[in-house]
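Protocol step 4 of 6: structure prediction from sequence.
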Amino acid sequence: REEERYFKITKRLENGEVEGDWKSPEARKEFKTRLKTMYDMLFTQCMKAGVTHPGFLPIGLGAFLPRIQSDDVKTVYHEAQFELLAERDYNFKYYFLNPGPGRRQAQDIRDNYPFKTNVVLHTKNGKFLATELARAGYSTCCLNPSDCIAMMNGCMGYWWEVGKGSRYVGEEDIVATSTFG
């Protein structure tokens, strides 16, 4: 399992949760390197497609990892993006990021980076943002961090019928309003 590469579990709690820490300082670095590889691939594909105003949502933020060092895991996700956006010019005019539950972590570290683009943290729906940017004539995209099988089968949770709520996510909206299938 993925978490075994990076975390050591020191205690299993009765409620099913666990306590633990990074396996080592190197494990945190390896995790960030893995995330940077993923983000670089996404940013490079956006650049190749001519996207100048990408809209990104939080990818994971450790949602599928044990709740070990969860604040630091969220920070690592943002460090990976921000380091790339400071190191390399992907020809983005603006990079829109809705950091979701990692908002505090993103805000805490954002000013530490000399970005090669304008980085905008926001709280808007990703599909809405992409739609409005496209209507304004910008080359944009909307990151959907779901796997294709989940999208094709409409397995995005249970909130798509009502269109809002604390657990409603963009993937559900895409399934509910798309022409899949």
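Step 5 (inspection) to follow. The first strand starts at residue 7 and ends at 12.
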